[in-house]
Amino acid sequence: MMTHCGAVSGPPVPSAPDLSPEALRRYGALTRSFAINDIRTRYVGSLMGFFWAVVQPLLELGTYTFVFTVILLVRFEEHYDTWTNALYLFCGMVAWLSVSETLSRSVNVVRENAHLIKKLRFPPSVLCSYLVLSEGFSALVRFGLLFAAALLLGQGLSLHCLLFLPVLAVQMLFTLGLAMLLATTQVYFKDTQHLLGPALMIWMFITPIFYPASLFPKQFSPLLMLNPLSHLIGIYRELVLNHVFPQWGSLVIFTTMAVTTFLLGAITFHRHSRRFPDLV
User: Fold this and answer.
1) Which among 112, 146, 219, 231 would be 20 to 30 A from 88, CA to CA?
2) Are 161 and 246 in contact (CB under 8 A)?
């Protein structure tokens, strides 16, 4: 449609993000501030916050260990005892909880913070970034529990476990991309948050968390290969429990998926962020 000036009207084209050092410093400071406030709200001075961060995963671990290793007699290796199987379960749960809880919290983060979105100079991507950073702290707490359990109940730790930090950083990049995609989708389709729960449940059970990857049906092996969390959990188990360097294939596949997902999420979020104030 032509305007009175003869120009073609259309949706506003988002400007390129400001990547100057000063802008990045402001963005980082704001993200850290939000993340620290979220951590304090959840954990500092709150017994329930500590409960959900530490005790709940242990309760879930006990439940899944009893069901899968005692009742169903699932073994990650034939010679593993109950405690070793429990460690393998817990290692998978640490990665899964970190990803799933971030996605569950981020899906509605734009709508829940409409008062901030409507402010002219507030960068919306801070909302997804601070949630990923806050859940990264929770992941560190759970990894601390895993390391303590490995020392007490398993075969101890090796220097390989130190490599979990760069892997966690790549995991957070992957989760941030997914979080931005979900948050953007939720702005347009309010049912996204209701569909996420069943989707996460399906994703959890097709990921080798509670069973070894060798039990996955051969005819569905491409599904296992394309599942980023199957690679991520395998990497963590190799580093922390098997004391070996992960397979290069898994590292390359997961890193490629993480970077691709992040770029897709960041581009999508930025392209639509200018419409958020009108839609929330």
Assistant:
1) 219
2) no
Q: Find which of 118-132, 143-157, 224-238 is predicted with most confidence, using mean pLDDT.
A: 224-238
What does the pLDDT look like over 53-77, one tens digit per residue?
677 777 877 887 788 878 877 777 7
Of 86, 106, 111, the residue nearest 237 (C-alpha): 86
**Helices within 44-163 (DSSP H only):** 47-50, 56-65, 82-106, 109-112, 114-117, 125-153
What pLDDT was estimated at residue 43?
Answer: 75
Residue 269: inside a domain: yes
Token pair for 37: 């406030």
The span from the CA of 259 to the CA of 253, in Å, is 10
Backbone phi, psi, residue 6, to 5°: 90, 5
Domain interval for residue 157:
21-279
Taking residues 247-263, what's their average pLDDT? 96
- Average per-residue pLDDT in the chain? 85
> What's residue 122's pLDDT?
83
pTM: 0.87
pLDDT-derived band at 208 (thresholds 50, 70, 90) equals very high
Q: Report how many domains make up the chain.
A: 1
Residue 206 lies in a domain: yes
Q: Give domain status of residue 14, yes or no.
A: no
Across the range 118-146, mean pLDDT stands at 89
